[in-house]
Amino acid sequence: MTGMSSGSPDGWYESEEPTRLGMVTELQRIKRRMRARPLPVILLAIVVTAGVTYRFANKPKLYESRIVLALSEGVLSQNKTDYVLFDQLKQYVGNVLLPDAPLNEMIERRNLFPLRKQLGMEFARNEVRGNLEIEIWKNSFVYFDTEDDSNARKSARIGLTYTDGDNVRAYEVARDLATIAIKTHDELQQAVADQLAKDVARAREQTAERLDEIAELRATKLTAADDARRRGNLDLATALSIELLQYATEEKKLLEQQRALAQSGEANADRIVAAGLDISLSIVEERRPEKAEQSELALLIVISVIGLGALLGSALFVGAFDVRIHDADDVQRLNLPVLGHVPGFHGDDVGSLAARGVPRGRVPWFLRWRSKR
After folding, report:
1. DSSP symbols for 5-55
2. Which residues pair with 155 in a beta bridge?
3. Measured between alpha carbons, how far is 264 from 256 in angstroms, rounded to an integer?
4. Of 180, 203, 198, 296, whose CA–CA distance to 256 is shortest?
5. Which of 172, 203, 204, 304 is deepest in the core (most CB within 10 A)?
6. Under a CB-based contact definition with an 8 Å cutoff, are residues 253 and 195 in contact?
7. What residues contact residue 214 under an 8 Å CB cut-off, 6+ apart?
8. How far does CA 9 lie from the centroid of its chain?
9. Contact, 45 vs 311, CB < 8 A?
10. Separation of alpha carbons 240 and 220, rounded Å
């Protein structure tokens, strides 16, 4: 059975050394190499451990600060607002409510990204926008059911999360961005309000001018109608009377329009809603990150793990470039027979070759690590 097994194609597998024994053998080899040259191994392990630990301890930490804004309807807009804008609310906040000019002012004031002096302000703005995350949730402008609550007002939550390596600066920049968004929103509303006021004033002027024209025309037509009646021209008098009736109807409508323009509150509610002036934006929540403290226990664990790995790696590295013969395995790797092994004793150093300065035999690294089958 043994002969058949050795002659089978799988005989090589049965003749292989178990992986576990191979690992033990290699660990013993590392141990012998380290004992042969302990100082270089320890020094290299210390340098590697110190370097990795320094990088870990000084790794820049990132802090996230979030400012939550509420975009909500007013009383006048209740169940009336229907804007396509709120479907793209995220793009509206990033592109409209955070324009370039206020961002430039904030970057200069905070002295953010010093490389902007060489790369330009556009680089700094892109960095700010890259560190900013805009989130939209609870957007009832898009998903709103009046049957559930007819008195409810639409609203949305806008989260501005800014990431920075300094916790204080992260909060201050996030707060500045929220302030810019609110200020821009108010400025846009003010511009719309000014335009609405101009439109109302223009409408009042046009109405007043038309009323004055109608009053003059009515007086003229009324005098002409009286003259036609006195002359017995009834057809002309009838035609003028019809025109006077039309002027009276038009004057009545203009007077009603003038009274509507003069009023406020509910009379202008539709105009206010249509202009978006009853949509408010305000800060409802802030999250200021706290500076993280380095845990000594975690640092000790990291040092221990890194140190153990560095010690094994250093032993392998130093042993790989050690061309001296240390044990019988090194001789076997040269395809030389090993006749015997002389155990060491405490008097080996007395009169030894090493004590007399005789150099030890060298084995090329490419031969010493060559496997022998």
Report:
1. HHHSTTHHHHHSPPHHHHHHHHHHHHHHHHHHSHHHHHHHHHHHHHHHHHH
2. 72
3. 14
4. 203
5. 172
6. no
7. 247, 250, 251, 254
8. 59
9. yes
10. 10
Give the integer Cα–Cα distance in Å for 192 and 316: 75
Distance of CA 368 to the CA centre of its chain: 54
pLDDT in tens, 190-212: 877 777 778 777 888 888 888 88
What's the token pair of residue 156?
A: 């949305």
Q: State yes or no: pLDDT of 307 exceeds 90.
A: no
- What is the DSSP secondary-structure string of 195-260? HHHHHHHHHHHHHHHHHHHHHHHHHHHHHHHHHHHHHT-HHHHHHHHHHHHHHHHHHHHHHHHHHH
Opening angle at CA 188, ends 186 and 189, nearest 5: 65
The region of weakest confidence among 66-75, 213-222, 261-270 is 261-270
Measured CA to CA, the distance from residue 373 to residue 245 in angstroms comes to 122
Alpha carbons 280 and 285: distance in angstroms, whole number:
15
Q: How far is CA 51 from CA 46, 54, 298, 335, 367, in A?
A: 8, 5, 17, 41, 33
Query: Cα–Cα distance between 51 and 307 in angstroms, integer?
Result: 11
- Please, are residues 210 and 204 in contact by the beta-carbon 8 Å criterion? no
Residue 192 token pair: 């719309």
Count of C-beta atoms within a 10 Å radius of residue 50: 14
Which of 52-66, 155-169, 315-329 bottoms out in mean pLDDT, i.e. has the lowest?
Answer: 315-329
